[in-house]
Design a protein that fits this description.
The structure holds two protein chains of two kinds.
Chain A: H1 3-16, H2 18-56, E1 60-65, H3 78-84, E2 93-108, E3 111-121, H4 125-128, E4 133-136, H5 141-146, E5 150-153, H6 155-161, E6 171-174, E7 177-185, E8 200-204, H7 205-213, E9 220-225, H8 231-245, E10 260-264, H9 265-308, H10 310-318, H11 323-352, H12 366-393, H13 396-401
Parallel strand pairs in A: 3-8, 5-7
Antiparallel strand pairs in A: 1-9, 1-10, 2-3, 2-6, 2-9, 4-7, 5-8, 6-7
Helix pairs in contact in A: 1-11, 2-9, 2-11, 2-12, 9-10, 9-11, 9-12, 11-12
Chain B: E1 8-17, E2 24-34, E3 39-43, H1 50-57, E4 65-70, E5 73-74, H2 80-89, E6 91-94, H3 106-117, H4 121-134, H5 150-162, E7 168-172, H6 180-195, E8 199-204, H7 207-212, E9 215-220, E10 223-229, H8 237-240
Parallel strand pairs in B: 3-8, 3-9, 6-7, 7-8
Antiparallel strand pairs in B: 1-2, 1-4, 4-5, 9-10
Helix pairs in contact in B: 3-4, 3-5, 4-5, 5-6
The chains are: A alpha+beta, B alpha/beta.
Chain lengths: 403, 251
């Protein structure tokens, strides 16, 4: 009795009850597919975050105020930011760009667009924040000093307001103030979560303060270090200056009590990756449950199949089937169900991963394929073998009499 | 005309089911020797132990006490694999309830024992078709069991029992569920097989079936109550000259 022959019996067994076999496979398909795809989504979002943070540049630090009350002596103002550019106390600082950010409505010839981030800053912002100018030119230090109302807009804004026309040189109205568009920023690939990174406008700090925000505290200060390995030095230097400026006593210590927070890209990367990993694990766990349910499906079908076919096993034994041939047949049936179902699940996941899901491009983790397939086959084998070996071990007459 | 060893040698075989109060003595020490080429009918009321005896003889069940020699070999000493071989090569079993494998065509059912014997697919198909031809079902090879009448199903079962050319054919009430026409068909197949030298043991309720056998054994309450030789063992002259494709290969 060749193995091929037994396989043929198994195929016949699987195809004898097509609907049931198909439903069992569907259970495995969904389980395996869900595991692979959801893990891929989690992984994709983690990679996206990493890409985005890398795009921010690894030699910049962001200083933000942590005081909520807005008490004037702890707020970070333009003057505080200017003080960071100190060749004696902070020799490794390359540039300092105070940033005010607000949301504003831009109007052009009756078309409204509500921009999420209307940024007022220094010209050094463009290199520090890795925001290159696509067409046109960045505003200059002179523009800043004069408080000229010029603005650079992101691609989303350009498409919304100037569909088909060249935006450069056009005049737009932002909260009643006229701004001249001087450039369009390069498109940014990384979308930050639910925010569109291209839905942005950048103007000189003085102009924005004058027209929109007023001369108060700034939202954040982007500090560019001279080089990537100087980031830690710069962090210490600006912390010293800020402690002086904001009158933080050295003894009060502890990062939590300072009225500011300094973040660098690698720290950001770390926390974000941690969050993303938690997300992946959660998704994987949910998918794992569905795989388990699929496995229980196989188990159930194998139990029913073997019990229902105990008589058939008796007939086969009476005709001279050795125990091993019967066991092999049922194991092959279980393996076939789980392998085909699992294979289709892998295919479904691979197809599904071609599309972006909730704005995330899934990235398949190869080990998740092996794990999901392995688990489904193992479940099928194990739970197929127990009832099959019990039935194969029966005396033919007992199997024949089984009702 | 008897062989050197009896095909069946049953020695004081007893079978007890259950324990304690519920104990049932299905067989109470049956001894029976069947020579090669014999045609034995076993009769008895229900509960007389005939099916139990048949199952033991067919290696489907094991006796509680006593020994059973098949072709001189003590069956109780065989392991699972050897028993599977014995069932496959030496014995052809016909069940009262046909016991065809559902959703499987007639020819595939007949092929089954050959498949377990390791016969090549092509040869297997040939032999299965020849066996079906022999029982008069050549035209229905591809029908499933649910497309066949009871008599046809039983003939498929007979074809399955004889396709491996076993020396011993056991039939447990093969005509019990059949009409008179089918009964005649099945019995004439058995007559031919016996004429060709096969040993046949069958169980029956019907006296006219018992009458066709060479030897009639009656069981009562787990013991043999009578054992009558109706005709001597030997090839009936009228049937000896009727070779068929299948029968030519018989020993």
């Amino acid at each position: 009795m060749s193995f091929l022959e037994i396989l043929r019996f198994a195929v016949r067994g699987v195809t004898a009850n097509k609907l049931r076999s198909a439903l069992t496979m569907l259970g495995v398909l969904i389980g395996v597919g869900a595991v692979i795809l959801l893990v891929a989504v989690g992984n994709g979002s983690a990679q996206q975050i990493a890409d985005r943070i890398a795009a921010l540049g690894t030699n910049t630090l962001t200083v933000q105020s942590t005081s909520r009350g807005g008490s004037s002596n702890t707020a970070i103002t333009v003057q505080t930011a200017e003080a960071l550019q100190d060749p004696v106390l902070a020799p490794d600082v390359k540039s300092v760009s105070p940033v005010v950010s607000t949301s504003a409505t831009i109007t052009y010839q009756g078309t409204d667009h509500s921009v999420q981030q209307f940024v007022g800053t220094y010209p050094s912002y463009f290199t520090a924040s890795n925001t290159p100018v696509g067409t046109g030119a960045a505003f200059t230090g002179d523009d800043l000093a004069q408080g000229r109302r010029v603005v650079l807009i992101g691609t989303t804004v350009a498409e919304e307001l100037f569909a088909g026309t060249d935006p450069i040189g056009q005049q737009v109205t932002v909260s009643g103030a006229l701004f001249t568009v001087v450039g369009v920023l390069d498109e940014k690939s990384a979308t930050s979560g639910f925010q569109d990174a291209n839905d942005v406008a950048v103007a000189p700090l003085t102009a924005v303060q004058q027209a929109l925000t007023g001369y108060g505290a700034v939202s954040s200060v982007i500090v560019e270090a001279a080089s990537t390995d100087k980031v830690d030095d710069v962090q210490a230097q600006i912390a010293t200056i800020l402690d002086q400026r904001l009158k933080v006593s050295a003894t009060s210590g502890g990062n939590s009590s300072t009225p500011y927070r300094i973040q660098n890209a690698s720290q950001l990367l770390e926390t974000q990756t941690e969050t993303a990993n938690t997300f992946t694990v959660l998704l994987g766990a949910v998918a794992g449950i569905s795989l388990l349910v699929g496995g229980i499906g196989i188990t159930n079908i194998m139990l029913v199949t073997v019990t229902e076919r105990t008589r058939e096993i008796g007939i086969r034994k009476a005709l001279g089937a050795p125990r091993r041939a019967i066991l092999t047949q049922f194991l092959a049936e279980a393996t076939m169900l789980s392998l085909i179902g699992g294979g289709l699940g892998v295919a479904a996941a691979l197809i599904g991963s071609q599309f972006s899901i909730v704005g995330i491009k899934p990235v398949i983790v190869p080990s998740s394929i092996a794990l999901a397939l392995g688990v489904s086959v193992a479940i099928g084998l194990f739970f197929g073998s127990v009832p099959a070996s019990r039935a194969a071990g029966l005396r033919p007459i007992d199997a024949l009499r089984y009702e | 005309m008897t062989g050197p060893r009896p095909v069946l040698d049953v020695r004081r075989v007893a079978k007890v089911y259950g324990e304690g109060e519920a104990t049932v003595h299905a067989l109470r020490g049956v001894s029976l020797v069947v020579e090669r080429g014999d045609y034995v009918a076993i009769m008895g009321s229900s509960g007389s132990g005939k099916s139990t005896l048949m199952n033991i003889v067919g290696c489907l069940d094991v006796p509680s006490t006593g020994t059973y020699l098949l072709d001189g070999v003590d069956v109780s000493r065989l392991n699972d694999r050897q028993l599977a071989l014995v069932r496959n090569r030496r014995i052809g079993f016909v069940f009262q309830s046909f016991n065809l494998i559902p959703r499987t065509s007639a020819v595939a059912n007949v092929e089954l024992p050959l498949a377990y014997a390791g016969v090549q697919a092509k040869q297997r198909r040939q032999r299965a078709l020849a066996a079906l031809e022999l029982v008069g079902l050549g035209g229905r090879a591809n029908h499933g069991p649910n497309q066949l009448s009871g008599g046809q199903q039983q003939r498929v079962a007979v074809a399955r029992a004889l396709v491996t050319e076993p020396a011993l054919i056991l039939a447990d009430e093969p005509t019990g569920n059949l009409d008179s026409k089918s009964t005649t068909d099945i019995l004439s197949v058995f007559d031919e097989l016996n004429a060709a030298g096969r040993t046949i043991v069958l169980i029956t309720h019907e006296p006219e079936v018992g009458a066709r056998a060479r030897r009639l054994i009656k069981l009562f309450d787990g013991q043999i109550s009578s054992d009558v030789r109706q005709r001597p063992i030997g090839v009936a002259p009228a049937l000896a000259d009727q070779p068929t494709i299948q029968l030519e290969r018989l020993r």
